[in-house]
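Why should sequence recovery work at all? Because a backbone constrains its sequence more than one might expect. Tight turns favour small or flexible residues, buried strands favour hydrophobic ones, and helices have their own preferences. The token representation captures these environments compactly. In the example below, the structure is given first.
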């Protein structure tokens, strides 16, 4: 725990941020605006590639990596060495894949925040399923892939199709869908010693939604519900075009989603931070099911979508929540707008796509990234956003779209 003096507003809070991928610049900037000492530990492979806000960093350190994977014992030694001369008060994981790293460091240095067991609820899809079921929350029927007798009984009693999900990958990455039990068994056997790192679950056809929220003191301070266009699993496995749309927050659907999100994150024990949660509404009967959650800002530029619609930047609010929690101060959310907005992101055939022909006045954000095309449109009228998003999807598919292998992440 930080010394008593370091938790008073008169003393700078020292925050170590972890980022194995390039993201979270707005959090780093806001931490510095809040008067913190800010240190960043990131991947060595990003040293000459990432655009970090150096003016907001007291120092930056690099971990040798292989495709953004770090040697965790070496990481603990490195941060412990830093702690000899820098008194670290808080650790923040800026990417989903950094949550376990941050938890290990908190446990080792005995710092506040999610420890290793608590972090499982926000990273491990099996832990999410088990805890949600224990709390009486609706989840698709599932089974761990530990015991063959239980897997066999599951496949004989739970109707297919089924999805086999990696427990510790983000979003829809690595998820495979199967209609035949023998195909499931073949895949499980092919995994060898890795098969225990998966969870088997009934595939529920339906509409996918996400709720992005801010939590402080164990209470939801803000949440906003959105509806995906093409389901993320189809985008990841089929190379589709990613879209999502801010919903009418007063609608019955949005209210139900936000209520379910509150129950999930209360059951999972999130106290201070931000979250991105996903839910499905079954086509068969309209029932809602919990899919997954996280203790970080949603990727794929969802934070930009929320900011365009409301004026709230989730990366910045996360920093404010962290500081308020450390100093035991009140957290007050900035004034919000309530516009509608839609987001589109796609891989592009062109190295640097020319999107100058998109000239609608509602176009408020345009992606500038190699082999990508992306837009955010905003309006006070939901129907206008829906129309533009549908039109842009058709144009992007015809003029730019390129599919990608399932291992590729949607640009964040």
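From this structural description, the recovered sequence reads:
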């Amino acid at each position: 725990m930080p010394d008593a003096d370091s938790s008073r507003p008169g003393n700078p809070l020292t925050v170590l941020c972890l980022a194995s991928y390039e993201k979270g610049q707005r959090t780093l900037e806001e931490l510095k605006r809040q008067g913190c000492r800010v240190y960043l530990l990131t991947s060595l492979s990003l040293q000459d590639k990432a655009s970090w806000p150096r003016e907001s960093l007291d120092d930056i350190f690099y971990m040798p990596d292989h495709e953004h994977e770090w040697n965790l014992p070496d990481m603990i030694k490195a941060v412990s060495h830093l702690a000899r001369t820098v008194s670290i008060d808080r650790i923040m994981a800026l990417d989903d894949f950094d949550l376990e790293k941050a938890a290990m460091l908190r446990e080792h240095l005995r710092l506040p925040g999610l420890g290793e067991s608590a972090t499982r609820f926000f990273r491990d899809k099996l832990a999410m399923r088990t805890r949600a079921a224990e709390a009486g929350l609706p989840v698709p029927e599932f089974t761990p892939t530990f015991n063959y007798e239980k897997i066999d009984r599951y496949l004989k009693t739970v109707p297919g199709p089924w999805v086999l999900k990696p427990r510790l990958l983000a979003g829809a990455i690595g998820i495979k869908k199967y209609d035949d039990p023998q195909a499931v068994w073949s895949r499980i056997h092919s995994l060898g010693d890795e098969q225990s790192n998966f969870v088997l679950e009934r595939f529920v056809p339906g509409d996918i939604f996400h709720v992005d929220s801010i939590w402080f003191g164990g209470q939801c301070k803000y949440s906003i519900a959105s509806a995906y266009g093409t389901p993320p699993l189809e985008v990841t496995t089929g190379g589709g075009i990613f879209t999502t749309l801010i919903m009418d927050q007063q609608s019955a659907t949005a209210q139900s989603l936000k209520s379910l999100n509150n129950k999930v994150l209360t059951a999972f024990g999130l106290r201070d931070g931000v979250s991105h949660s996903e839910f499905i509404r079954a086509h068969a009967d309209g029932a809602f099911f919990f899919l997954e959650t996280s203790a970080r800002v949603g990727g794929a530029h969802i934070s930009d979508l929320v900011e365009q619609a409301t004026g709230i930047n989730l990366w910045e609010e996360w920093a404010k929540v962290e500081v308020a929690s450390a100093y035991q101060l009140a957290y007050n959310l900035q004034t919000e707008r309530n516009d509608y907005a839609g987001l589109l992101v796609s891989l592009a055939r062109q190295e640097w796509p020319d999107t100058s022909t998109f000239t609608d006045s509602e176009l408020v954000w345009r992606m500038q990234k190699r082999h990508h095309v992306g837009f955010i449109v905003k309006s006070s009228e939901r129907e206008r956003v829906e129309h533009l998003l549908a039109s842009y999807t058709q144009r992007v598919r015809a003029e730019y779209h390129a599919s990608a292998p399932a291992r590729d992440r949607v640009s964040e």
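A few observations help interpret the result. The chain is about 35% helix and 25% strand.
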